[in-house]
Design brief:
globular; about 15% strand; Rossmann fold; alpha/beta; about 325 residues
Length: about 325
């Protein structure tokens, strides 16, 4: 009997500490994907000053964690990074000097058109960079294709489209992702100011991390990357500096574990067809059903009074 390899003790853990201090726990070349959402340096309160740095300090700090994190990737690994348009140009240049850029993805947050700036155009998107280490990087497009709707399939019902793989399996999500941000009333929402939707994180995981692979998130926040990994059959490791957010991650993971452990509700039993139900009828009832039912004779029809036959040669208006 083959013994399965034991899982490293750093896998499926979120360390409540600074990522720069904790990355030494993770061996080099051991993770399949880095997927992270660092502070945007827009002055938000994450319980610390990580989002309130000068521009020079922020870019210096970003370059520092990038250089510490990239060695942890496998040779065919990838990286996704969420950014604001304010700093994405500089950070993309940093990453281009170390990796190959595959996409700039625009996440349209579907922000309502009310309010906003009166001195510039309202910002309603986040920027996502997709980078890889080398040409043979892992990427499973079929896992994230979007199904065509019935109307599109019907419009392409001519013989030249029959058997077309792209029509059957769906289309490439492209680089503009229109997914609503998580409003306060959303059931997925946790107590975190910049929580990302599971739909986006799961798309990245399915496309760029193989089943059973490991994803690293240096800034876990509310733990969405960890949840998405477990939902998609992947492993995770991550860091979060704020103890309150670490508690939220623990609660969310515990709730997910309970949800996955609960057996699926049994489906309602379909009624058997009449012929099959007859097999369950008692024999006595079955015998009674074989007895011919008494048939009531219909009342005798009254005979209509006989009419005298007319000669075919006599016109109808002539009385005989």
């Amino acid at each position: 009997m083959t013994k399965l390899a034991e899982q490293p003790d750093w896998v499926n853990r979120v360390y409540c500490e600074d990522a720069l201090a904790g990355l030494a726990r993770i061996p080099d070349g051991s993770v399949d994907l880095i997927l992270t959402d660092p502070p945007y340096n827009l002055g938000k309160d994450y319980g610390n000053a990580s989002d309130q740095q000068s521009v020079a300090d922020y870019l210096r700090w970003t370059e520092e964690w990038i250089d510490a994190a990239l060695p942890k990737l496998k040779a065919n690994g990838s990286l996704y990074i969420f950014l604001t348009w304010r700093y994405s140009p500089e950070i993309f240049v940093m990453l281009k000097q170390r990796m190959a850029m595959m996409n700039e993805i625009i996440w349209d947050r579907r922000v309502p058109s009310m309010g906003g700036s009166v001195r510039s155009f309202s910002s309603v998107h986040d920027t996502i960079g997709f980078f890889v280490k080398r040409k043979d990087y892992y990427f499973d497009l079929d896992a994230v294709r979007i199904a065509y709707d019935a109307a599109t399939k019907k419009a392409r019902s001519r013989s030249i489209f029959i058997g077309a793989k792209w029509l059957e399996v769906g289309y490439n999500p492209k680089d503009l992702w229109s997914v609503s941000r998580l409003h306060k009333e959303h059931p997925e929402r946790a107590d975190h100011p910049t929580q990302k939707p599971l739909e986006i994180i799961e798309r990245m995981l399915k496309a760029s991390c193989p089943p059973g692979g490991v994803v690293l998130d240096l800034f876990m926040g509310s733990g969405t990357t960890a949840l998405a990994a477990k939902r998609c059959g992947r492993d995770f490791v991550g860091f979060e500096l704020n103890p309150d957010y670490c508690a939220i991650i623990e609660q969310r993971l515990a709730a997910l574990a309970q949800e996955l452990a609960e057996p699926a509700a049994p489906k309602a039993e379909k009624k058997a067809p009449a012929k099959r139900r007859a097999a369950a009828v008692p024999k006595a009832a079955k015998a009674a059903s074989k007895q011919p039912a008494a048939v009531k004779k219909p009342p005798a029809a009254k005979k209509a009074p006989a009419r005298k036959a007319r000669s075919a040669s006599v016109p109808e208006d002539v009385v005989i």
